[in-house]
Amino acid sequence: MSENGAPGAGREKPSGAKSRGDMGESLALEYLTRRGYVPVCRGYRTRYGEIDLIMRDGRYIVFVEVKLRKSDAFAQAREFVGRSKQQKLRATAMIWLASHETALQPRFDVVEVYARDGAGAPPPRINHIENAFA
């Protein structure tokens, strides 16, 4: 699996947010891999945005947006993948597809990771939404 961290691409997250985001991506990657998905790329970045994970699932190339939250008390994590974010993900996926020839059908998934901080916290809860948007 490759990583793409183009310098200067996108906004930098504060280090605490970045490490929590990395933790969420790692949990999502482990979850999907256990379900038979094959990792292709992690953290693919362009000037339009970033795709957290790119995975292969049978006849699909799956562009995965990972959303990490402490809980769903305020809103479900998927609700933070609005129209603007979807457009950025589509544009970034188009760039990836233009430079990586594949016969696989593209699909956009969202993986919600709910993980509280601290000792004694319950284990993370993961919800995978296949074909979350077109």
Question: Can you describe this structure?
Answer:
With 134 residues, the chain is of the alpha/beta class. The chain has one domain: Trna Endonuclease, Chain: A, domain 1. The protein is 28% helix and 37% strand. It has two helices and six strands, in the order βαβββαββ. Strands 1-2-3-4-5-6 form a six-stranded mixed β-sheet. The longest helix has 20 residues, at 15-34. It is globular and about 45 Å long. The model is unreliable at 5-16 (pLDDT under 50).
Descriptive labels:
globular, 134 residues, single chain, 6-stranded mixed β-sheet, alpha/beta
Tally of domains: 1
Major β-sheet profile? 6 strands, mixed
DSSP strand tally: 6
Large-scale geometry = globular
Strand order of the largest sheet: 1-2-3-4-5-6
Assembly type: single chain
N to C succession of SSEs: EHEEEHEE
Q: In CATH terms, what is the fold-level topology? A: Trna Endonuclease, Chain: A, domain 1
Number of helices: 2
Q: How does CATH name the architecture? A: 3-Layer(aba) Sandwich
**Beta-strand content bin:** 35-45%
